User: Fold this.
Amino acid sequence: MMRNPPLIKPMQLDALALPSQEVMRNGVSLYRLGGNNNGAVRLDILFKGGYAVQEKPLQAMFVNRMLREGAGSLSAAEISQKLDYYGAWIDMYSSQEFNHITICTLSKHFIPLLGLLETMVKNPTFPEENLETTKRNNKSFYMINSRKVDVVSQRYFEHSLWGEGHPLAHIVVPEDYDAITVDDLWSYYSKVYASSNCSIFIAGTFDECMTNAVAATFGSEEWGAGEPVGSILLPPAATMYGRRNIAVKDTMQSAVKIGFMAMDSSHPDFHRFRVLSVLFGGYFGSRLMSNIREENGYTYHISAELDAYGNRNSFMISSEAANEYVEPLIFEVKREIKRLLDEPIPEAEVELVRNYIMGELCREYEGLSAKSEVFINAWLSGEKFSSVNDYISTVQSVGAAELREVARKYLSSGDMIEIVAGAV
Assistant:
């Protein structure tokens, strides 16, 4: 007896519960996202500043990385031992406008680790010997990356994107590592690491006792000497459109970056452009992958995506190819852009992309730690938390005609940055 096949229904994703905000006594905002009982918690401490306010290249990066190299009476080894003892994972990095400290641990170990974080944030020692070691290690990593065509092309793409003289356009050189001193670290630290520039996110399994501990540690009295950092990310100095060939020695292939400065995250077309970029080059069945990898075999991988710089976004097509395929690859990219402009987008293709994105969002939003990261990224972009749900709604409702209109609005000018790094 024949059974009826299962019904195929469009994938649905309910709107996400938004973080709640509490402004603590000293003005530090605490954002909470709770609701599960898996026994783990994530804490993010963010300081406004980032690369945009540093006086010397690499200042922000080294200050944040050196926080765990000695604090109070604790050495770097003792800090690492405490983190290992409690099974905590910690990440410390800097971005364009913020310095980030993220720690994940079991909820039962949260309060003792909070005390360790307080010491690291409020009482670093920046030992010179550890700084020299950190400089050598990071410089060595930089030198290795400088032989990778993808890394080199990204550096020059950002240089062209922001324009000569912009803080984010600087291409780091080996001498920048040598030039960092302990005094540079203290100068940046005293300017940025203060309650006036601090925001905190907590997500996962936590109770009132834990949030009270956060408030007592970071939210009661003002701490740090820094003044509030205002709006800091300057507009591009002068975007450098056109082709730039960057020679990288002894390479068998070249990296290609093509793109431009796109709209701000608050722009009405932003979410539709995100969907368009997936259709164009954001998944394995995208137009760029189907043409340039599957049909022509010019590359193993090619992508198109929006990259965030605070509330600004760049649109970038990225790939690597054998040197003899670079020009044909670029030709096909431009041909696919023209096809987006000239030909209607089939509704079936939009439906395929819609289902792909919804599946990815279901995976991306699994667990409160992952959801917290999504909301933090929206917050870093200057968006409201509700913009996360706005994107879900756009994915579920956008049509082919809307995507074609967006393509014609933003891809038709021909003003593109074009970087080729390799054997050129």
Q: What stands out?
A: Residues 345 and 404 are 7 Å apart (CA to CA). The chain has a mean pLDDT of 94.
